[in-house]
Design goal:
The chain is α/β, with parallel strands linked by helices. It has eleven helices and twelve strands. The protein folds into two domains: about 130 residues, Response regulator (Rossmann fold), CATH 3.40.50.2300; about 130 residues, 3-Layer(aba) Sandwich (Rossmann fold), CATH 3.40.50. It is about 50% helix and about 15% strand.
Length: about 350
């Protein structure tokens, strides 16, 4: 209706201008009025209303900066993102490095690229020092940012969704005490010493060991790469013959430890780790891995999209932290822990 009215008014205004500009004293010819066909006006108005509805009811463009695209753990997260997009009508682009050995430096480049596209919101793994200034850069450009799986609480991120690292780390410590009987010499494999999340998990792990006769021998970095972790595990076995247990803080660390335990026949070596990758679960069934603390990457991705959508719609969220919880998976519950 507004378009039709403006068409009539515009035609009238043009006619008046034509009359005012005429120097003849003779009787002016009747002005012709041209009215936009009603069907065309209605069609254009419906299109505009449709665009407005899409802008106010979803259809937003998001970016997920994934630490390692193609890794099984992050594939589960991507599945959750895809499901949420399907339900909300949003569009989330997933970008990130594919090489685990360089992701700690490459992820910054992908974050820069995400900011450059000016999406409605960005979600990313945040527990690396290089991420903090980029989160602030996103804020300066008016792009809401949500931390996923690893938090950056001292930045301008609007929320964190994922596992509480202290609770998860403490649970691995309790598991270590349970399976070693409170006496052990432990080596730790971690993906990155610069990962705030993993270091919080390790600190919590140590807190859970207090009061027990458990010694930490060393901590080795693996870059979350299976082949690197295998090499590091082989070196641990040779360097520390007194080692009786291993904690792996990333998904591939405990798999590497399991591989060497099986190959070397180290039946008494206790292995505790994280995440329910298929091979990890098989190692648990075979009694090679004693237990893993399982996170919920699918739910992180799924809820993360919903939180970005809610923030863009409302301008705020009810909470700053959304804990997706953990489960200790052992041989006793490996086949029914998700039920």
């Amino acid at each position: 209706m507004k378009k039709k009215l403006w068409a009539v008014l515009l035609t009238g205004a043009m006619a008046a201008a034509a009359l005012a500009g005429c120097g003849s004293a003779s009787e002016p010819a009747p002005a012709e009025t041209t009215e936009t066909p009603a069907a065309e006006v209605e069609e254009e108005t419906a299109a505009e209303e449709g665009e407005a509805a899409e802008a106010s009811n979803g259809g937003y463009d998001f970016v997920f900066v994934c630490p390692i695209v193609g890794m099984e753990y992050w594939n589960l997260c991507s599945d959750g993102i895809e499901k949420a997009d399907e339900e909300l009508g949003t569009h989330t682009q997933i970008i990130g490095p594919t090489d685990s050995s360089t992701f700690t430096t490459e992820i910054a480049n992908y974050m820069e690229s995400a900011i450059a596209t000016q999406p409605d919101a960005i979600m990313a793994y945040s527990g690396l020092e290089v991420m903090a200034p980029l989160i602030e850069k996103a804020k300066e450009q008016g792009i809401p940012f949500i931390s996923i799986d690893s938090d950056a609480p001292d930045t301008s991120r609007i929320a964190y969704i994922g596992t509480d690292p202290y609770n998860a780390g403490y649970k691995t410590g309790e598991a270590m005490v349970e399976f070693t009987g409170g006496t052990a010499k432990v080596a730790i494999l971690c993906s990155s010493l610069s990962s705030e999340k993993e270091m919080k998990e390790v600190d919590a792990f140590k807190d859970a060991l207090e009061g027990h006769d458990i010694e930490i021998l060393t901590m080795e970095e693996t870059d979350a790469d299976l082949a690197t972790a295998v090499v590091k595990m082989e070196a641990l076995v040779s360097t520390y013959p007194e080692m009786t247990a291993v904690l792996g803080t990333s998904a591939y660390d405990v798999q590497a430890a399991a591989k060497i335990k099986k190959e070397r026949g180290l039946d008494d070596l206790v292995l505790i780790g994280y995440d329910d990758l298929d091979e990890t679960l098989n190692y648990i069934r075979d009694g090679i891995i004693n237990g893993v603390v399982v996170q919920d990457p699918y739910n992180m991705g799924y809820q993360g999209v919903y939180l970005m959508n809610e923030y863009v719609e409302k301008g705020s969220l009810e909470e700053e932290t959304y804990d997706t919880g953990t489960i200790l998976v052992t041989k006793e519950n490996v086949d029914n822990y998700r039920n």
